[in-house]
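Can anyone check this?
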Amino acid sequence: MALHTDIPSRSEIERLLATRGPACASVYLPTSPLKQDIQADQTEFKNLAREAIAQLEAAGADRRSVSEVRELLDDVLEDGDFWAEQAHSLALFASPDSARAFRLPNRLTSHVEVADRFYVKPLLRSVTFPQAGFVLALAAGSVRLVEVTREGPPFTVDVPGLPSDAASAAGKASIADRAPVRRIQGSEGQKVRLRQFARKVDRALRGVLAGLELPLILAATEPMESIYRSVSTYPHLVEPAIGGSPESATEEELAVAARAVLDEVYATELSAIRDRFELRFEQDRASTDVAAVARAATQGAVDTVLVDIDEKVPGRLDEDTGAVELAGDDAASYGVIDEIARRVLLSGGRVLAVRGAEVPGGGPVAAIFRYPLSAVPAPGGLRTDR
């Protein structure tokens, strides 16, 4: 059972966040990679699509826009090949102009939002700490790329052009053969061969990993580990590596080890960010106040923001000042925290979608600023639309 995932890149998320239109529908639902669950997934999507259309009509969207969104949703519903290849969640964003779907490895609950923009915050969790990635099992005698998903079983990826071993990559019967430069022999000559092998592996992986932002975990022993790190061009190669020879390890064994590495990487990263928040808070360069964070995000002053994936704050932000106006949860409003995330991303900041307990202060948002907030003109406090 393989998961078919479409993890959005930062540029794809930015395009979703930048979309504006009279009828934007965001649909989230849990799905299953099992063939026997296809009909149930389609039925759930059909119900959610019907709810999205009803909300658009209730909000007074023009008939043509509603009709175009309905047609796009129907096209997705009737695409049998698409439903035959699913992961654990589906996020679909439809406007009168286009529809974009992402099949995700993490589990999301069924949810529908309509507004003049897409509701993207639940999608951000899949790219913050995805608990998914790749393992490069690399040894002189073999190489495999194993994809590790959040909940499904791991599987070996077919990589065109991937050399089978170091000797064949060098066109030799053995890497112990004399190196191209005659003076280089023995262990030094073998390292030359291994480096040639590593470069060919790296080039082959570019065709599979290009544009992705998932972690790559190396399973190798020395000197192969150090040699590969020295030539790798993939920016998301992480530390530490999986120790021991990977040649006899099964996909499942590599996945178990990889998830332990990912847990360590994410825990270390989140702890460092929380520590930095505490330090910046004392310097007037951090806040958990929604109004203050919204103002800073509008001025491009947010370096990093942590948002609660589960909590929605319906309302609006002033386009110029970032002043917050709370409102009812209807098609005329949108998620304030979602809009804060959009403004942070578009100004080059970083957005981390986390669980509520992981947000400093326990509120829906916490931000680290690029400079003291006192330097940002205040537009006023948080208002409530009554």
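Reply from J.R.: I decoded it. The two ends are 51 Å apart (CA to CA).
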